[in-house]
């Protein structure tokens, strides 16, 4: 029996992030780049050249044109989030499976329309959150799920801050209300929220409340904010996201028996391996002058870069549908939706002067 | 010229923490244990024996008696916080300098009475927060104050959680409203708040607000809570403290240019050295697949355990007053007071269902 042919992916838009994902598509053993589109043929062509696309790549001078390309199984969509609802729905209607950059939409109502279109057309949708596909993440999850080493989760703290320069703060799409209007919350906060949900087995919190001190630009786009989440049984979490502070991406989870720490959870320091520290039943010596069982470090090798692992998983799911008649995997859109719900709730709390927002029944 | 004689310290109460501080007094080059008191002579005697006190140590069978001891320069007071206002004032009135366990009082009004008594009697007061005396802390401060390596502070996250067993949760003074009624907030939270203030150059926040999800026992004592603090210029902080989660004591500070992380800020993993990591102007490689300038670790040797550094500093100040006519150092009570103010504000926010509490004008 012949091996399944690689999934053919088109890149809809030449955003900066598409450079990295293009390389990832090339690296994934079960996917190939088959086309690229920009609003101008010139731009698409030079993007393809600059990123070492195969000669065979079809170059499209409009988004409409790539949607019609009959040779594509799937589209990677790195457009500004305000355009997702239009182009993801159109892609689904053309029967294209969708790898969609985050934030998946400007609010959950829009995302629900996208998911409905995907369901109606039997296509897979997955968002572009790369770190969850790093093999390290499975190890984190293993530790967090271990009643002996970690116990029951009590709190998670996660943050992603990165220092934007003046040009970014003036011109980047992530600070424009009509492009990526969720700003630092939709961009950096997305990862912190996803990490928090992952640690909580994707159970939605009961409430979200923004901290005082969110920073917004003149157009009302969030440049920096923090929030607390709380669950029915007393679990809590904090997230912090910012375009105005030094680079940090920390995840700390504290359980009844153990702790987990990651300092590069979104993008590991190195491409080929990723570390984390754990401690279990740590305590002090008799006089409380030093620790017994302090944290220890663990390192996980990564054969493929995490973004290529993401593409491999996406292409695997598409292959199951295409070649074996499987149904689209609902796990991925369900966690996109939950992440978006928490983004929306925190945004609402920021807008309402730190009011507590309920997520019950969402 | 003869060297000054060591400062003679009496230990008022045989709390568990007094074991460690007794050893620290013995280790400090400029202090000696000269007396110990308990409510029973027997208990004081067996405590002195168990902790290797010098033969010459005077044993007192009541708190009143040690106050009258004319040979003592100072008292270390590890009593439950509800007793501080009485015994610290009585000690001050007897002209004894005071090393006072934290939390310094059950609220700032009480602490102000203690400080007034110390001022009226010209005695030094310092609280028993040990970690700030670790030589590492000066190095942390150096980094946080460096405009090139750290830039301007944007946020601080600090936590101290420790898992209390059933016996603790039933019987320990830290869960009794009439003894250490501030519970985990006054005990564990104290350290997290102090760290936050230290990173903010001891500038009080504008507001404090508790997170939803505080856990209180049947008597209304806080077993676990979190809070956000915010400053006028947009700096923010979160603190988390708990008796119900695994051991963790993390401090993360993010500035415009750099980050600082400490995982054992209250009690270093080892007694003889303490580490922290910093990063400065960290960023990604061109394709954003790895970090350039990831965090690096720094280790600081400690000649003396941090609690002995604390006693040494306290004894030095007392020596300056006793031998050189210096005035008591107001820095230490001022930071105790600020820490207590933030404790009080968070407690008030917990009591008022997460209302924002203003600290302006305090």
TrEMBL record, chains A, B:
Source species, domain of life: Eukaryota
Signal peptide boundaries: none
GO terms, molecular function: nucleotide binding
Domain Gfo/Idh/MocA-like oxidoreductase N-terminal: start-end pairs: 7-126
Entries under Gene3D superfamilies matching the protein: Dihydrodipicolinate Reductase, domain 2, NAD(P)-binding Rossmann-like Domain
InterPro entries (alphabetical): Gfo/Idh/MocA-like_OxRdtase_N, GFO_IDH_MocA-like_dom, NAD(P)-bd_dom_sf
Domain GFO/IDH/MocA-like oxidoreductase: 148-261
SUPFAM superfamilies found in the cross-reference section: Glyceraldehyde-3-phosphate dehydrogenase-like, C-terminal domain (SSF55347), NAD(P)-binding Rossmann-fold domains (SSF51735)
A family per Pfam: GFO_IDH_MocA_C3
Family classification: Belongs to the Gfo/Idh/MocA family.
Name of the protein this chain belongs to: Uncharacterized protein
Taxonomic source organism: Arabis alpina
